[in-house]
Amino acid sequence: MTTLLMYERVVAVNRDTHRQWRLRPATEPMAFARGTNAVLLAGTELPLAALDYPCVFVEAEQGLTMVAVVGLRDHENLMVNDQGQWAEHAYVPAFVRRYPFVLATEAGQDEMTVCLDEAFEGFNTDSGEALFDAEGGETPYLQQLKRFMLGYHQDMVRTTQFAARLLELDLLTEQTIDAQLNGQTSSLKGFKVVDEARLRALPPEVVQDLFTSGALGWIHAHLLSLNNVRRLGARLATRLTADQVTDQGNQGVEGAGAEATSAS
């Protein structure tokens, strides 16, 4: 399962280097997410994300965490169309919304630094949201952005703790998603889901603890989200059909061109 591969040239935001930099929308605003089939997901996002995506557990650098599955084949995001737009009315995970910014830590340090992807086409010096004012102070836009990313980071820490608790209770089991593609089966592996039988077998006091902490609600949202595999399958079928129609149309154009060349 492919994740995270959205950033190309990450550097720390610097009031001198980026004093004149502004950010405007890209021509294809979500094109950067086109090549991933899963994105990191905070537990706090589950009530909304579970309506659109299978939300599962995977191993990451920081330990076991959650992702929203957005594609059934490697390097393919079924939620991003040919125009680089996210699917209308579908929830956009915070991991995607924070791009082209990210919080990072330098080796040997605990302090987090705001970084940006210099490869993002929306950066310029003419129009859009400014990062710094004329005196080099942070603009309200950059300050709000930092608060958003810090909150997201804290939510991801809670999500890692949530996943660790489920692992401690032995509630997680390996799972595979099988998708039928033109008569052939394509499988996504490498993730875990909650085993409902093990969940029902938990002692009452443990269930009460999960309920009090809010984890039980997250668990049920996660389990309901697994039904969205069928919705992804329907999106993939629609895309395959559209690609087939396009290929046939291109062949027709090429054939007409060949006839015109022969006639001349």
Describe the structure.
- The protein has 264 residues and is of the alpha+beta class.
- It is built from seven helices and eleven strands.
- The chain has helices at residues 46-49, 94-97, 140-168, 196-200, 204-213, 215-225, 229-263, and strands at 10-12, 22-23, 38-41, 55-60, 63-69, 101-105, 112-117, 123-124, 129-130, 172-181, 184-194.
- Strand 6 and strand 7 (112-117) form a beta hairpin.
- Mean pLDDT is 87; it is low at 250-264.
The first-to-last residue Cα distance is: 52 Å
Question: In DSSP terms, counting alpha (H) and pi (I) runs of 4 or more, how many helices?
Answer: 7
Helical content (DSSP H or I, runs of 4+) = 25-40%
- The gyration radius over C-alpha positions equals 22 Å
Stretches where pLDDT is under 50 for at least 5 consecutive residues are 250-264
Overall geometry comes to: globular
Q: How many β strands by DSSP? A: 11
Give me the strand/helix succession.
Answer: EEEHEEHEEEEHEEHHHH
Largest pleated sheet: 3 strands, antiparallel
Beta-strand level of the residues, as a percent range? 15-25%
Mean pLDDT: 87
